[in-house]
Amino acid sequence: MAMLRTTPFHPQWFVAKGKDRRLRHLGRLHGNILDIGCTDKVLARHLPEGCRYLGLDYYATVQNFYSTRPDVYGDACRLPLAGESMDGILIFEVLEHVPDPEAALAEVSRVLKPEGVLLLSVPFIYPVHNAPFDFHRFTRHALERSLRRHGFEVESIESRLLSIEVAGLMTNLALGDAARRIGTSYRWAFPVLIPIGVCVLLVNVTAWVLSFLLPGSDFMPEGYDVVAVRRA
């Protein structure tokens, strides 16, 4: 299934298509870079030359969901780092898994140097994942309010996916969930997987075409990508 992730045969095709967008801001980073929720540390390969990368992840998350090893284990709400020791911080698809996101942002502000860059991403319309460690969803307005409270100047908050694309994504995630249930609990219904796969392809292609013909707006985005700078 992983081989199909970047094709319209996969339920999360729209998510995979948007992941490269986060990489375009990495070029502005320099110096000491902290990646909170680093999983397999894939972002380290995309940083500019000369950056000193440190990957941090939560022990329980790593043990339950990933077969990876961070550079350091830690809690985003109590970072084991000195104040103003980082030039840049990455926190992609992590804040929704933190019980107290305000405490996490306070820690990010503490650890980041003045004029340091924060690159952050969160989901908005997306199913529960990594349960039971999935606690929050954020609007654009909540993100901006919280970041300003903790001393950040928000440079940009960009929505991910248009409404029609999100509708297609949610439809296909529901179909994918049904397919998973058939595969694990209703094996007598295996033949149904074929029309489900065809439906996934049709929904992806239809939503993609309609997003050009009837683009709509970002009133129901899949998530947000944020660039912010810590001010002294």
CATH topology of the domain at 17-161 and 219-230: Rossmann fold
Shape: globular
Look at the structure and give the CATH class of the domain at 17-161 and 219-230: Alpha Beta
**Shape-level CATH architecture of the domain at 17-161 and 219-230:** 3-Layer(aba) Sandwich
The average pLDDT score comes to 93
Kindly report the spatial arrangement of strands forming the biggest sheet: 3-2-1-4-5-7-6
Please give the count of helices: 6
Q: What kind of assembly state do the chains in view correspond to?
A: single chain
State Rg: 19 Å
**End-to-end gap:** 47 Å
**Percent range for helical residues?**
25-40%
Low-confidence spans: pLDDT under 50, at least 5 residues? none
Number of strand segments: 7
Write the element-wise H/E pattern from the N-terminal end onward. HEEHEEHEHEHHE
User: How big a fraction of the residues is strand?
Assistant: 15-25%
Helix-strand makeup class = alpha/beta
Largest sheet: 7 strands, mixed
